[in-house]
Amino acid sequence: MSKAPNPPVPGATDPKIIRNFCIIAHIDHGKSTLADRMLQITGIVDPRNMRAQYLDRMDIERERGITIKSQAVRLPFVADDDKTYVLNLIDTPGHVDFTYEVSRSLAACEGAILLVDAAQGIEAQTLANLYLALENNLTIIPVLNKIDLPAAQPEKYAAELAHIIGCKPEDVFKVSAKTGAGVEELLNEVVKQIPHPIGNADAPARALIFDSVYDTYRGVVTYVRVIDGRIPTRDRIKMMSTNETHETLEVGVISPDPVPSKAIGVGEVGYLITGVKDVRQSRVGDTVTLLANPAKESLGGYRDPIPMVFSGLYPLDGSDFPELREALDKLKLNDAALVYEPESSVALGFGFRCGFLGLLHLEIVRERLEREFNLDLISTAPNVVYRVVMDDGKEHIVTNPSEFPGGKISEVYEPVVRSTILTPNEFVGSIMELCQTRRGNLLGMDYLSEDRVEMRYTLPLAEIVFDFFDQLKSKTRGYASLDYEPTGEQSADLVKVDILLHGDPVDAFSAIVHRDKAYNYGIAMAAKLKELIPRQQFEVPIQAAIGARIIARETIRAIRKDVLAKCYGGDISRKRKLLEKQKEGKKRMKMVGRVEVPQEAFIAALSTDDTGAKPKAK
Amino acid sequence: MRTLSAYIHIPFCASRCGYCDFNTYTAEELKRDGTSITAVTYPDRVIAEIDLTRSQMASDTREISTVFFGGGTPTMIAATELVRILQALDLAYGLAPDVEVTTEANPDSVTAEDLKVLRKGGFTRISFGHQSSAAHVLKVLERTHTPGRTWDAVREARAAGFEHVSVDLIYGTPGETEEDLIATLRDVAAADVDHVSAYSLIVEPGTRLAGQVARGGVPAPSDDVAADRYAIIDEKLSELGMTWYEVSNWAKPDGECRHNVAYWRNQDWLGIGPGAHAHINGVRSWNQKHPATWANQVDSGLAPIADSEKLTLEEIAHENIMLRLRLREGLPISELSDDAVAQAKLAVAEGLLEPEKFNQGIAILTFQGRLLADGLVARLWA
Q1: What is the largest CA-CA distance in chain A?
Q2: A526 and A544 in contact (C-beta within 8 Å)?
Q3: Least CB-CB distance to B372: which of A537, A565, A579?
Q4: A105-125, pLDDT tens digit by residue?
């Protein structure tokens, strides 16, 4: 298939002809299209079989135009010097939630193409990943894409990139991934600029896991970059973080479909299959060695994925609970970062408290559950993890506001992030205002170019998970971009606000908020619920409370009349059916104490969209 | 043995009122729909349908105990024709010696002479659609009659010898004030009527009023206002010696509409005319809705039934509760399931059912219960 006449054999490839690189880019900046073009130019994909965004495996990725799971593809390439090289293109996830996965992908490379849309300039996430690549000592090749667009401003953005990386504007490559212009030259540049991998072929084997994907037929497929030694097929391997051992049933490279080989050696990138069924047994960042002659030290840098954002997921129809459990169990096989445990809510019934890397991760999981498993779900407002220290020194880790302890609290700690916002300079004022109201702390500000500014803030993560991104986009007409990374925790004056319906707390509506905002939250929530909950036979007070102190109150007045007038023309059937329908509707209501609350009220009240309050159903 | 009643539908009106979603048509509408059915050609078809039902129920030996002509506006067809239909019913089924025969009437479309003809022809009861004494309320309802005309018509009916005279009221119309309603009830007090039906205005989908409400031109009627107005009606009518016997109906002693009571007691009745509903031996059926379709089937000698449902035991039980709970005579608790009895006990505690009557084994709505009867019915379907 390849245009290279005798492509080098995996497991017997001289590291000197290998180039391992990735593409750092923002969503929509054309990474997948560029990768497609590279597949075509190197000839490993027959033009007839070419489909857009070839490397994105899941439908959801293709639809959203983003890559969730990185992959690696081996491209034999005959360069300008007429020698055949092996280019390993390692695809990286492009979103803030997957920083750790990105960092592992970067660790598998010696160089990176920094791909930026020539009409939009660099975005915050790209910048963050670029810094990550520079920390990893990667060689950076700056590239402007979409130079064929009428709106492209190659000179302006070349200057910007040069300023950021510290190169000359004329060193910035210009391509059109769509038409293919400049892509072959770029591949030659990869060969020229990016160093070949260096490793010790005779040392005990060490390979870095940079991705791990569950496949229904093959089990877990683990993507590795060999640093030292070689990983043969049909051998015992050991995962250095867990000391688990497996047998390599198959070893190979992706080109772009899996090609089994006898082994993979120093500097090579490939996959291994051991028959394990759960990606947790093959963790991103871990080091693989051979059982017979194990390495003494791991490659380092491994860490467990840490869920940062929690949300309760509940089936709309309570009887779907077993299906939800099964679906989560299946998703978990392919998602090492997803954690969940069953919980029950007075308001929502049985569900799961799920932990996610971030908001996008949450959204993706939710969407997959709904789409691939046909589940209708309610998700509670996302919250972060709090550490509550009591006066007596006891500590509670709170992942659900309803578990916030009562009693004497000494300190509450919340996670904080270091965020980077890139924006046209005209929006600096409104962004400062936004960050101010979100308890942000300005760390610094730099002009990337004449009119683009990088702003750095410390922000409580809780403030970001609640519609911060939407606000940022609306205040900057969509121009600003955001990236953040966890940097630790801070003590803050946080309180739990409970919402009481007819005196009974509704767990799903409890929230942990800063004391200064508790009053507003209480008023807004009570007013929203008043609109959403139908009148009952008795008066229903809605109260917001901090502990025993009521901070807001609304009242749903008792229903006075529900009886319908006469049966028109003796149409008893119509009246009976009407009442039957009403009764059916009541069955779907949740009882909070004596109050009947329609499911829709929970959904609408939990949605962060303040304008979404619908008039109550008659 | 259930009694047998007859409902005769007269689907004609001089104009359509904005709130009305009844199965009724103006002459222009019928002409536009291309049917030859008019107020003149209609009675023969009605009589044909009566005879058709008779041939299908040949073994049913029951006499007709009550007859009700409703609409539409029954008085859109000649009084002599209404009498002719009644005679056909008598010929086919036989009217009971104490038969109650009611017709609805628009005060504007009935004369003293008509009333005499009706009374002489066997009609015993007349119900005038008064709705309100306030001209601005009638305007929102798009009613055409002048409010004062009702009371003349009541006097004429009494003069013609009608034993029972009723008026229909609509309350809770947008724009209606408490004073408007009180004035209406003052008129009722001054008139010689022994029965009042009062219905809260319901905005039915598809009506002109629904469109006006949706566009914001007319405010939606409020249930709270309706509850207040209902209390006023109940109070004022009881001062006149009228008692509620059904949620929306009040009468002086012996003034109850027996036809109405038959519905709520879940008795049997024939439904004659387009869109009319019938209930015979556990089967509910309804006729073709449009007069043209209905007439075509009658003309070809077919029963003009659009569809029917054979009630299941559960549906029968549900209807029994739904219908009889609305009557002041109430529902024997022995007919409720254990779960429903538990709900009924709660309802007593909530003030929806009369505690004393409950202890005597009957579920009877309190004043508050009358306003919240639908929710209670659904609960008693436990």
Answers
A1: 95
A2: yes
A3: A537
A4: 899 999 999 999 999 888 888
Please enumerate in sequence order all residues whose Cβ is within 8 A of that of A87, keeping only pairs 6 or more positions apart, or say none.
A19, A21, A38, A42, A74, A75, A76, A77, A187, A190, A191
Interchain contact A615–B (C-beta under 8 A): no
Q: Which CATH superfamily is domain B4-264 in?
A: Aldolase class I (3.20.20.70)
Q: Write phi, then psi, for B9 (nearest 5 degrees).
A: -95, 130
CA distance B208 to B62: 42
A591 in contact with chain B, both atoms CB, cutoff 8 A: no
Is the domain B314-381 a CATH 1.10.10 member? Answer: yes
- Phi, psi values for residue A458, rounded to 5°: -95, 130
**Residue A230, both tokens:** 């070689």
- Return left, alpha or beta for B236; rule: phi > 0 is left, psi -120 to 50 is alpha, else beta: alpha
| DSSP symbols for A2-31 | -SSSSPPPTTS--GGGEEEEEEEE-TTSSH
pLDDT score recorded for residue A469: 84
* Cβ contact B223–A562 (<8 Å): yes
3-state secondary structure of A457: strand
* Least-confidence region, from A328-332, B116-120, B124-128: A328-332
Where do the domains of chain B lie?
4-264, 314-381
- A319: contact with B, CB 8 A cutoff: no
pLDDT of res. A2: 60
**What are the φ and ψ backbone dihedral angles of A68, each rounded to 5 degrees?**
-90, -45
Between positions 247 and 306 of B, the ones with CB within 8 A of A are 247-248, 263, 269, 271, 275-279, 284, 286
- Reply yes or no: is the peptide bond before residue B369 cis, omega within 30 of 0: no
Round to whole Å and give the CA distance between B152 and B165.
Answer: 12
Pairwise CA distance, residues A279 & A334, whole Å: 6
Q: How far apart are CA B98 and CA A313, in angstroms?
A: 67
Locus of tokens 């409902």: B7
Decide if A282 contacts A239 (C-beta within 8 A).
Answer: yes
Q: Which residues of B touch A567 (CB under 8 A)?
A: 263
Cis peptide before A47 (omega within 30 of 0): no
In tens, the pLDDT along A294-339 reads 999 999 888 888 888 999 999 988 899 999 999 999 888 878 888 9
- Average pLDDT for residues A221-225, to the nearest whole number? 93
The pLDDT, as a whole number, for residue A331 is 86
Summary mean pLDDT of chain A: 87
Q: Measure the CA–CA gap between A312 and A91, rounded to whole angstroms.
A: 32
Distance from CA of A577 to the nearest CA of B (A): 10
Residue in A565, A573, A582 nearest the CB of B309: A573
Q: Return d(Cα B76, Cα B199) in angstroms, integer.
A: 23
CA-only gyration radius of chain A, Å? 28
- Residues of chain A with C-beta less than 8 angstroms from the C-beta of B318: 576, 579-580
Residue type, A154: P
| Residues of chain B with C-beta less than 8 angstroms from the C-beta of A585 | none
Q: Where are the beta strands (DSSP E) in A194-235?
A: 206-215, 219-228, 231-232
Tokens coding A276 = 């394990």
As beta bridge partners, residue B66 has B5, B100
State the ipTM, two decimals: 0.88
pLDDT given for residue A618 in this prediction? 30
In this chain, the answer to whether the domains covering B4-264 and B314-381 adopt an identical fold is no
Assess contact for A45 and A256: CB atoms under 8 A. yes
CB contacts < 8 A, A to B, total 94
User: What is the spatial distance between Cα A609 and Cα A604, in angstroms, rounded to a whole number?
Assistant: 8
Tally: H helices and E strands in chain B: 16, 14
Q: A123: closest CA among A456, A453, A485, A481?
A: A481
A576 contacts chain B (CB < 8 A): yes
Q: Which residue did the predictor score with more confidence, A65 or A19?
A: A19
Instruction: Tell me, yes or no, if A555 comes closer than 8 A to chain B by beta carbon.
Output: no
